[in-house]
Amino acid sequence: MGNQTGVLDFLLLGLSDQPEQQQLLFRLFLGMYFIGALGNLLTILAICFDSHLYTPMYFFLTNLSFLDLCFTSTTVPKMLINYLTGSNAISYAECLAQMYFYIAFGTSDSILLSAMAYDRYLAVCHPLHYGTVMTPRLCALLVTVPWVFAHLIAMVHSIFIDHLSFCTNNKIPHFFCDVNTLIKLSCSDTHINEMLVLFLGVPVVLIPFICVVISYTPIASAVWRVPTAHGKWKAFSTCGSHLSVVTLFYGTVIGVYFNPTSTHTSQKDMIATVMYTVVTPTLNPFIYSLRNNDLKGALGKLLGLKHFSKRQLC
To answer: Membrane spanning segments where (predicted)?
Structure first.
């Protein structure tokens, strides 16, 4: 490794150093992690065991559920272990690995959300051409390319972080090893690393977010033209939920990584980070899946329950 400074361990300070608050945070995040993991696992199993859901939309949804499960598992279990044991140490190698997978899964998640928005755009606005455009080959590319690109991004950041020097301060004011936090902690020149965060953040965050907005604009127009008030409200309710979670994800990421450094505070950054690393992956199974009657029917079959299923617009 490139780190030649003698720093073998970091200390993750977490969200609080008060024992009473740590106990509360442990219960809160354990509950959210369990609910999110269970929701994502049930979504994956329901789709895999129901051949009627072997469509592009549910193919993307399966991948999103898997990514959300991996994304939260990169940071939350370590935080829970720290609160449970009272030890907040993390080795340099473990810290670098955590940062790598956090970037890889987070980047894949971001790009996949834009692919799902494009899929919904085709389904709603061009239904007659949907089958010919959204082929199995294109679906595979829209999932594979983000994975490959995300791991390349993670590798670049890891290599450049590994060449930084870390002196006497080994306290990370965060609940996981974030690239921005490590950059601030370094005692060497971090200009290149800071430029990389901004430069690589454009294809990782800004472009996917713009693609989501572009995709949902004609969808909103199509929904507005739905003739019945009930159908319009149902469609707006579903599409609005999708867009609100996507906005929460991209909005907090942009707030953390694209705000001027002078406006950053560790506490604000951590709260924003919790929103897109824990809250949105926990909400996604309920927003994308449990509001969908076809999937609720599949979940009913999986759990031995009876449900009617009707297709929704989004």
So the answer is: 24-46, 58-80, 100-118, 138-161, 195-223, 235-258, 270-290
Give strand pairing partners of 91. 9
Closest CA to 155 of 198, 210, 196: 196
- How is residue 213 written in tokens? 């907005």
Residue found by looking up tokens 């994502």 in the block: 40
Instruction: For residue 145, give the amino acid letter.
Output: V
Within 10 angstroms of residue 283's Cβ, the number of other Cβ atoms is: 21
**β-strands 9-12, 171-172 pairing:** parallel
Give pTM, 2 decimals.
Answer: 0.88
Can you tell me the distance from the alpha carbon of 292 to that of 127, in angstroms, rounded to the nearest whole number?
18
Per-residue pLDDT tens for 178-212? 999 899 898 889 999 999 999 999 999 999 999 99
The CATH architecture assigned to 9-303 reads Up-down Bundle (1.20)
Q: Which amino acid is at 176?
A: F
CB contact at 8 A, 41 and 64: no
Calpha distance 73→78 (Å, rounded): 8
Strands 9-12 and 89-91 come out as: antiparallel
Nearest to 185 by CA among 194, 173, 176: 173
- Cβ–Cβ under 8 Å, residues 69 and 37: yes
Q: Where are the domains of the chain?
A: 9-303
Residue 260, judged by CB atoms within 10 A of its CB (0-12, 13-18, 19+), counts as exposed
